[in-house]
Structures are given as structure tokens and as C-alpha cells.
Design brief:
Blueprint (H helix, E strand, L loop, with lengths): L5 E14 L4 E16 L4 E5 L6 H8 L7 E6 L2 E2 L5 H8 L2 E4 L13 H11 L6 H14 L16 H14 L4 E5 L7 H18 L2 E6 L2 H7 L2 E6 L2 E7 H6 L4 H8 L62 E2 L12 H5 L1
Parallel strand pairs: 3-8, 3-9, 6-7, 7-8
Antiparallel strand pairs: 1-2, 1-4, 4-5, 9-10, 10-11
The structure holds iron/sulfur cluster.
Length: 340
């Protein structure tokens, strides 16, 4: 088997809470608490979940924007979380990011030309000035912006066009992996569709891998290969898109999917309303973290934390794993299977 492009093993990021006069550590926010996944070359993995579940923290940890508490981040077989900044630098080029807000993520005092030239210069990619100009022109073509717009300032563009510039800036470094952190969430519906289509086209044209972080399952369904569902700092289900959307194996995924419109007129999924708020990541519930909101919770769920594993039953696609005790019950007693 080939080496995955990205492997994340038992990643933890606990942010200290400082308090008192001396600023001592009084507790921790368990933002990410043992997350593992991998992404193959050219693959899109979407990380989904409600706001505050830790998905953006995972993205930033992968990019090494801060140190991690525990675990491993491995890029193309090389462990990056323990590297010195100088050793990591060439690998940093291979992982780029597109942020959510196209208004704040571009420096308003730089023309588009300089915004795009910066990563090319930083990583020493252009042979000479002619090569730099050629690369800049091709980047504008790649994100479907007119070449003559390269001399303009960010404020002269619409939100969707600015996000195209953000994508071009990420591509300028010739990455293998792009982390898209809610990259279309701030855009209007019609513009959102255009940017999603652009990302899909680019992925095919350039063979990019993507970690697509989003709370919007309708968008995810459109553009991903696999999905990992996060709840309160943990991944609770992973599957390829078809398997996850047609046969969710975790009650949290089932509830999230029930709110996604079915693209067939007149048809709708049975809506499962999640009761209560997401518990605090400072003091996550014992046992299954979802038990305070799960409609199927039983005694074991309150004491025993379920592991992510393949449900032992027929018809579950390879690689489909879920962390739920329901799959230890006989099939006739498993409400998820009755609902499927
Ligand atoms: Fe619900 Fe229990 Fe499954 Fe957790 S382990 S999702 S509480 S049924």
C-alpha cells in the first residue's frame, strides 16, 4: 500500500485556561482530544460538525500553526510536529490553507500581484522575473480571473473574487494538500456554488488533496470523497461519502444528515432535532460524549467511552467506522438500523 499523503495519529490539543492573579493554569479546553485520520494523494476528506467541535483546531494543528499537546502529524511519511522550523519549512510549502473570510485574509495594502508573488518568492520557486510573471499569469487563469486584474487592490474585488485570489495564493506555493477552513461559508449561495465547482475542478486538474473543514453537509456531499464527523473534540464516524449519506452509523451523524435537503423535489429526510446544547469542552461528559443529547442513550453510554470501529454487520462499506455502543446490540434492537 502507498503511504498516505497526510496521517494524523491520536492528535490532542488542549488549551490551558489561565486564572487568578498569577495567571496559573486552572484547567484545560479539550479542543481536540485524540483524533486520527489519513488523506491519500488527490483525495478530499471533509471534517464536519457543529461550531466548536474542534474541526478548525485540527486544521490549524495539521498546518503546524501552533504546537500540539500530543499525537503525530505525518506528511508523506515524515513526522512534522517534532521538526524544527527550518527543517519544516520546505514541507510547509506542500500544505497551504484557504481561510473562511476573503475580506480579512488578504492584506489590503498589497496589490494582487504582490499577494500572489509573495509565496513564490518565499519558497524560491521562480527561476527569474520572466518565470515569475508567467507563473502569476497562469495563476490568474487557473482561478478564472482576468490577467489584467492582477494590478488591482483587494477592495476592488467582490467576495467571491477575493476567495479566488485566496485560492490562487494557496496554489502559488505548488502544494500537495490544501486545508480549506470553512472556505465557502462566508459567501452568498450562488457564489458558494461557483467556488465549490472551482475547487473541484482544481483538485482534478492538479491532483490536489484537500482537508475540507465545513459545517455545511450539503456542500460536503457535493465535493468530498470521504467524511469524518467530529463531536466535542473526537471523531465519531468516518466513511466514504456514499456510505455515510445513505447509511449513517452514528446517532449524531444521523441527526446532522436529517437537516440536509434531499435533492429530489417533494422528498425530505425525517428530521431528527438535537436537543440541548453541545457540552463544554472544558468538562466533557464521561462515557460517550454524545450521551447528553443522544435519543438512543442507555446505561452503558454514560460510563463507557465507545471506540471508533467497523460495525460488525453485513452491508457496511469497507472503511466505514463509528464510535457507538448500539452496534454491539443485536441488529433487531439497533434503532439506527431500523431507521436506515
Ligand atoms: Fe448514543 Fe450511546 Fe451511541 Fe453514544 S454510544 S451515540 S450515547 S447510543
Amino acid at each position: 500500500m502507498s503511504t498516505p499523503l497526510l496521517e494524523v495519529n491520536d492528535l490532542k490539543k488542549h488549551f490551558p485556561i489561565r486564572g487568578g492573579l498569577l495567571g496559573n493554569t486552572t484547567g484545560y479546553v479539550y479542543a481536540v482530544d485524540g483524533v486520527s485520520f489519513s488523506i491519500e494523494k488527490g483525495e478530499t476528506l471533509s471534517l464536519v460538525g457543529e461550531s466548536g467541535c474542534g474541526k478548525s483546531t485540527v486544521g490549524r494543528a495539521v498546518l503546524q500553526l501552533f504546537g500540539i499537546t500530543d499525537g503525530q502529524v505525518v506528511l508523506d511519511g515524515q513526522r512534522v510536529d517534532t521538526m524544527s522550523p527550518s527543517t519544516f519549512r520546505p514541507l510547509r510549502r506542500r500544505m497551504q490553507v484557504v481561510f473562511q473570510d476573503p475580506f480579512s485574509s488578504l492584506n489590503p495594502r498589497m496589490r494582487v500581484r504582490d499577494i500572489l508573488a509573495e509565496p513564490i518568492r518565499n519558497f524560491g520557486l521562480a527561476k527569474d522575473a520572466v518565470d515569475l510573471d508567467d507563473r502569476l499569469a497562469r495563476l490568474m487563469d487557473t482561478v478564472r480571473l482576468p490577467r489584467d486584474a492582477i494590478g488591482r487592490w483587494p477592495h476592488e474585488f467582490s467576495g467571491g473574487q477575493r476567495q479566488r485570489i485566496g485560492i490562487a495564493r494557496a496554489l502559488a506555493a505548488e502544494p500537495d494538500l490544501i486545508v480549506c477552513d470553512e472556505a465557502v461559508s462566508a459567501l452568498d449561495v450562488s457564489v458558494k456554488a461557483q467556488i465549490v465547482n472551482l475547487l473541484q475542478d482544481l483538485q482534478k486538474e492538479l491532483g490536489l488533496a484537500m482537508l475540507f473543514i465545513s459545517h455545511d453537509l450539503a456542500i460536503v456531499e457535493h465535493m468530498t470523497h470521504r467524511v469524518a464527523v467530529m463531536y466535542l473534540g473526537k471523531i465519531v464516524e468516518v466513511a466514504d461519502k456514499r456510505s455515510l449519506f445513505s447509511k449513517p452509523m452514528h446517532p449524531y451523524t444521523e441527526a446532522l444528515l436529517s437537516a440536509v435537503p434531499v435533492p429530489i423535489p417533494g422528498m425530505a429526510r425525517t428530521r431528527k432535532i438535537l436537543v440541548g446544547d453541545v457540552p463544554s469542552p472544558i468538562n466533557p461528559p464521561k462515557g460517550c460524549r454524545f450521551h447528553t443529547r443522544c435519543p438512543y442513550a442507555f446505561d452503558r453510554c454514560r460510563v463507557d467511552e465507545p471506540e471508533l470501529r467497523a460495525p460488525a454487520m453485513h452491508g457496511v462499506a469497507a472503511g466505514h467506522v463509528a464510535a457507538c455502543h448500539l452496534h454491539d446490540l443485536p441488529a433487531a434492537e439497533n434503532p439506527l438500523l431500523k431507521a436506515a
